Every structure is written in C-alpha cells, then in structure tokens.
Amino acid sequence: MKNHPVDEVLPFGKLVIYGLQHVLAMYAGAVAVPLILAQGLNLSQEQLVYLINADLFTCGVATLIQTVGIGRIGIRIPIVQGVTFAAVTPMLLIGEKHGLQTIYGSILVAGLVSYAIAPYFSKLLRFFPPVVTGTIITIIGISLMPVAVNWAGGGNPSAPDFASGQHIALAMGTLAFVVFVYWFFKGFISNIAVLLGLVGGTLVASVLGVARFSHVAEASWVGVTTPFYFGLPAFDLASIAAMVVVMLVTMAETTGDCIAVGEIIEKPVTQEDLTRGLKADGFSTVLGAIFNSFPYTAFAQNVGLVGLTGVRSRWVVAAAGVILMVLGVFPKMAALIATIPPSVLGGAGIVMFGMVAASGIKTLSQVKFEGTHNIMIVAISIGVGMVTIAAPQFYRGFPEWAQIILNSGITSGSLAAVVLNILLNSGAKPSGVASGVDRSAAEMIERLGLEPLPSEGGFYRETYRGEVNVTVEQGKRNVSTAIFFLVTPESFSALHRVKSDEIFHYYAGDRAEMLQIDPSGRVTHHLLGPDVMAGESPQIVVPRGCWQGLKLKSGGSWCLIGTTVAPGFEFADFEMGDRRSLIAQFPHLAGEITGFTVSRDSG
What we know:
By secondary structure, the protein is of the alpha+beta class. It has 22 helices and 15 strands. The chain has a six-stranded antiparallel β-sheet. It has a five-stranded antiparallel β-sheet with strand order 11-10-13-8-15, with no helix packed on it. Strand 5 and strand 6 form a beta hairpin. The longest helix is centred in the N-terminal third of the chain and has 29 residues, at about 10-40. The two termini are about 35 Å apart. Mean pLDDT is about 85; it is low at about 430-435.
C-alpha cells in the first residue's frame, strides 16, 4: 500500500526534466501579459525586462504555494500558476488613466477580496456534477486550441509570413515527432515526448534560421525582483471594482481547472481542497501586487500536459515552480527558453490542448443523456463558449464589466453550464428530504426508506441482521449485518473504524472514492464503481480496525452501495475519527485526513 501518486516524490533528475517540460509548455503564455502591457502603456525596454523577470519569479512562487502549500493555502495537486489573460484589458484601461501604481493597488485589494471569499465561493462545488465538469473541461481544451493554431502559424496573424509553409512545416514536424516519441517509446522517454519535441523542433528551426540566439547574449546574467519597484500602490474605487470582477472570473476558471486536474489524476477535488486552491490564487495575487506582477490563476495550458504524460506528482510541478524562480533571477536563462519559435510551440500545443478536450469528453461519457436534459446543457454551453472564438469582438457593445466575463469563452461557457444544469436538472424534491440533496438522490432516499446516519454522515437503512450469534472479544454479536448506504456531496462517510471486517458493494449512481488508513499509517485509495476495466472496484473489503472514509468522486450527485459487516455491527463497536487527533497520529496524511473528516471541536 502506498500514498496517492500525486504525493510521489520522483528522483531529482526526473523532477527537473518533467518540471522543465511544464515550464516550456507555459512560458509563452507567462510572458505574453507583460509584453502586451508594456506595449500598451509605452513602457521602456528596461521596464519590460523587469516586468518579465518579476512575472517569472512570482509565477514560480505562486506555483510552489499551490502545489506544496502553506498551512490552509494551496490545493496540493499538479497545477501551474500563471498570469490570467482576463486582467489584460482592465489593466490597460487602468494604466492609461491612472498609471502602474493604481494597477498594483487594484490588484492588491482584489487579491485580498478573493482570499476572503474563497471559503464561500468553494461552496459552489456542488453545482458541478459530471455533466457540468465534463462540459467545462471540453470548453477549456477547445478554447485553448486557437492559441495553438496561432502559434503554429508563427504567432502573429498580421505578419506577412503568418502560416507560411516553413511555419506550418515546423509545427507539423514537431507534432509528428511528439506523437512518434509518445507511441514508439515507453516509460520516461514517452512521458517527456513534448519536451523532446520542443527541443528537436527548436534545433531544426535554428538550422533554418528561424530560432535566433542573439537575445541570449544580450540578456543580463542576474536580475533581482524588489517589492514596489514602480512605487507604492495607489487606490481608485472604480479600478478596484473592475479588478475584483476579474478575480471572480479567474476564480470560476480556477474551479474548472482544479476539477479538470482532479479528474485526470483521479483524486476528486473536495470543497475544502477548492477553498485552499482559491486562497492560493488570492494570496499569490497579493504577492503579485507587491512584487510588480499580476493576478494569478491556474494555467489551463498545463492541464493537458498532465493528461498526456500521465505524471501525476505535484512535486514535478513544484520543480517547475523552482525553475520559474531561477528564470526570474537569471534573465539569460529565460532568454534561452524564449528562443523556442511559436510554430514549434504550436505543434506541441495542438497535442496538449487536444488532450484537455479529450479529458472532458471522457468525463461526459459517464453522463446519462437518455431521458435527461443533459444533451441540451452540453450543446448550449459549448456553443456559448465558442462565441468569442468565432467572433472575438462579439461583445464589444456590452458594458465593460460584462465584457470582462463574456470575453472569456471558458468563463461564459462554464456559467452557462452551471445555470442550465440548475434550471433543467432541478425540480421539487420529495417531502421529508433535506434541502441541498440532488433530486434523484432524494427520490432514492425516499424509495428505499433511508435515514441520515448520525455522526458518520450519509443515509442508511439496515436490511439484514443474522439470527445466529457468535462470541467475539467485545461480547456476543450477530453473525453478520447488512445495510443500504447512500452518499451525496453534502453528506459523506467521514473517517471512522469498526471492530469487524466490512465489505462494500457498489449498487448504483456515481463513483465513490474510499480512503483507508491502517494502524501503521499506510494509506490505500480505492474507486468504488462498476467499470472494472477502468480501475474501479465493485467490491471493497475494509479490515477491522482500519480507518475508513467514503465520498463521492468529484462532480458526482449520489452513490448507492451496500455493506456487510461480520461479525455483525453494533454502535458500541464504532469509533468516529477526530481530525486533530488523526493528524497528530498521522501527520504525513494531514491533507487526506482533512478531506475525509468534518471540523469538530475535540475539546
């Protein structure tokens, strides 16, 4: 038994190589915002270089905060943090009217606001069932594809040589090389197919004269990022309001990205996980204001790389964070990476962003379409998300605050999916069922006569108690007992243990994730579900004395299972897990214990 692959620490060499692959995948997007801002505000070359260095350094810090975590900040899954493009237009407008200091004042306040509201925003997670999450992940992948296509054409659609034969050949050659390595090699080499494609494509481009290394010689060796380089922040109410709207948009995007990564790495994102991830966004945005950078969010570009490589370790992305910090301190190294031609990036991007869309389609394959309104939810949401891809100026007549939201296809499509799901898949619940419970779950609870299970959580009804008694250490017990048990997003089986073996059987509904911790602290993850070929288990055995917790896989609505206990269950044999006591006993499992317990006063 071992920890979840997301917590696996790989050998140093692999950490560096996999981490570098993530950096190369996001580098162009990371430096694009300072380039656009500097051009729009007529900043000097010296100021531009400083902005890029500050951005790279803070990207690295933000990525470490998100992946490694600080206390209750950071989701601790493989997510790269980068500057949000949603902030570009508002920052240009604020900068033109008030200057850089007001930009940073607005970012500072917006970061504090997003940090403060993170626990409330994360409560929206229950509005993200598989039909919504699958749609959002698909929209993310499709929305990123124009970026890859523009890169493949040379990066600048207005350039005379855009989509020239040379650019397209470099892009397609890189794409073909990535596929070749991915298909014909196994293990480590296959996992770095994108990195090898970027290196190989750049070498070919240098021979053709497309990749030029002159900027490397011109770049300085060391660049130090200092707080408030452009002066102390200034504050303007309207500017702050605009930036707060930007942060609300990025929080919605981060929610989608976190759910997407959770699906890919098979570690469902809980409400508490999402709270920590959103707090990391807010905290990193505050750091961005202090260190002359910008608002931060999860970078969708890297989601596809996680799916393509299958490398789920968060420490790989933490290594990418360290590399980004080094690039921010040593501009000459950053200049070397910047020599990768856009067309080469485009070839790799088609693979990575397509992988994101494919992950969304995989999630949607688990959704029931017959006899539901789900097909309409998916169709309209993807259509709304594609509006600005087809016509970037479509919303130019809308108010500025509305454009901030609608100009992001990911945000507008996500909002459409959430709202349509609420409208089309909601309805009056049967009487006697608590509010907040999904309609189909409520019907199942009523039909089977289930009742809330005190302390542990979930809904249950005992269906069998053997008449034969046996004598065990704790006294006389029925030979066995059995129950129906149902979990929902709001009511899960918190960590507990019993003094008998317990067998779980999957019956119906969505998949559920089980965490087991044996007395020595060894942990096991199981996915309870019907698809054996996909790694799911229709039956799970929990040995007596083993701590166990069960909750829905991210985005699920309900899961109905049955459990058999032998010797039979009695509440006298039940022990509820206390979060603080368990973390004190198993400090290396603090994150997982937190996700499978509820906050209680132990005193």
